[in-house]
Amino acid sequence: xxxxxxxxxRRPAAPAAPLAALAALALTAALAAPHPAAAAESxxxxxxxxxxxxxxxxSVGRVEVSPDGRHVAYVLSxxxxxxGDESGPAWGELHVVSTADGVSRPFVTGEINVGDxxxxxxxxxxxxxxxxxxxxxxxxxxxxxxxxxxxxxxxxDTGVDAFSFSPDGRRVAFLSQAPESEEREELEEKGFDAIxxxxxxxxTELWIAEVDLAAATAGDxxxxxxxxxxxxxxxxxxxxxxxxxxxxxxxxxDSYMAQRVKVVDVASGRIVGEVAxxxxxxxxxxxxxGSHLALVAGVDVHDPAPGxxxxxxxxxxxxxxxxxxxxxxxxxxxxxxxxxxxxxxxRGVRTFVGEVGRDGSGDRVLVxxxxxxxxxxxxxxxxxxxxxxADSAExxxxxxxxxxxxxxxxxxxxxxxxxxxxxxxxxxxxxxxVTFRARDGLELEGILIRPLDERRGQRYPLILxxxxxPEAHHTDGWQTGYSSPGQVGAARGFAVFYTNYRGSTGxxxxxxxxxxxxxxxxxxxxxxxxxxxxVGTGLVDRDRVGVTGGSYGGYATGWLSTRYTDRIAAGVMFxxxxxxxxxxxxxxxxxxxxxxxxxxxxxxxxxxxLERSPIRYVEQARTPLxxxxxxxxxxxxxxxxxxxYRYLEILDRVPVRLxxxxxxGHGNRRxxxxxxxxxxxxxxxxxxxxxxxxxxxxxxxxxxxYAIPPEWGGEVPGExxxxxxxxxxxxxDEEDEEDExxxxxxxxxxx
Length: 751
Hints:
By secondary structure, this protein is an alpha+beta fold.
């Protein structure tokens, strides 16, 4: 049993006085004084959301319905105790819930990271990837649905990255990284370990092996010789072909921009179908008769996100957009039968489930837009039942089920799971959709979480939260996370606003391209217009506006804290951009930056690159700025944060602090680093958005009082034992395990 989860269904003992002060502070909307950072007996007792509650939120990741539609298997993300457990990302557990009565059973739990979940073709077992027991790499495991222990089915020297069963369950196709040569391994053991940047690349390869799932055994694997690096693997319904994506190299940039769909003949290993899909690529799905493929893909190489539903013959060719008029983005797809496709789409701040013919005819809505935000679908073999993952303003992602031959016409999906029952005891602030117009008349949307216990007629401090990408968007669902103030901010008397500025997804291709070639231009003017709108409604105090965001949202934070410094009273910048010159030269996605963001190289317009860089405006900056960054970030190099910090520190005209997280990349994955981030973020805003002119106030202390609850391991550690995360890296920090539960968080955002 994981002690961290023991409080989920009960309320701990009454809190000590400091936590009562925390709750009282949540009711004091004026934020007259900084929040006291004192230890309490149990932060879980608070009736409002706290950073400690954020650190224990569980959420549903991947969902897979059984072939007969009677059960849904899913991966549950379970955070580690930030103090009691070994440092690391959330665990990924395997659970199964009945679609009839909603009873959920744990199948594989504890210290495990389940990945790439699938039912065996006959529905008798669940297959998954994990590193268990004596495994040195991830292996393919299977656990009987009727009961019994999980058994290893297949292992490979370099691990198993993904898999797909043949329809009869007698063979499995899997992906694995090419091995390092023995000569290279011997040289590295002797210290000849120089890194030749972006060379000596090891592609991901396609293998096929005979398997006996009942006996949990596998024969010798056969490699299919292909040129490129493989991903997105799907065996055809007839068992004779495999569809997959191939990129020229394993570089991240190629995986974003250069994946092309291929169809491989299993017997010969030859490519028998080549799809001319342009630009970015998302989901791939076979039609039940094997004649066609459905793709979620970009419409062209400049499309910022894969969001069009396309169909192409399995023999190859140019795919056709079957929903050309959709002013939204398709997120997931499944075939009901050989003629009809069920799809999940985002439209504005909401989502819906629809169905369309493979020729584009008969488009209809199955599950209309509403207060529930659908994020994933899985269709039963007979097409009569649909499993979904979804969140809402009241809860993170859970499992839902839609039954019936009409799949949604007669009624809406039914919620099956509740993995955070303690949320029912929390008072949550109201959340609403806000529509406003930018200065040029463009209509924009955002999500507003109002201050808890708001008093009409009183103005409140604002935390403007900016999404990354910019090919992403906020939905009217659960908005509270380690780097997102959400309900924690509202409980402490802030209004929290999430703006879908121009260039966001969810409103069609044209809208998502509006910001291209104009970095920090009208897209970030939209953010100031959002603030002006909220000030105009009477809700927000114009002089107490803070901004935060990660990746491209970190870029926005740096920009508003320097270029628009007179409008921003506090900033919290995460893995953000400060210098467009060096950004292009230090990122692992230069082609994506060029093709779907900048649309020109630095040498095409040096003046523009300087003009749109936050470092250009450091001399005028007067906004207290907290800068946080993963020390190992390959997407936005930590040097981006270091440059902005150093310029501001040398000028010495404004409070600034830089926090580096050892072992973290483009977003924090480890529990302790996430909690640390949340505590620092909220403390910074409470310190600098208090009433009065706080811009010149000294920063809070560099160390954080973590106030570790008894549920997480007892006494609060002393200063000498506190985790060191401030302005340093740890060379001996162990390498992160792969995030196998699929929860990427902010890390997937392409800056």
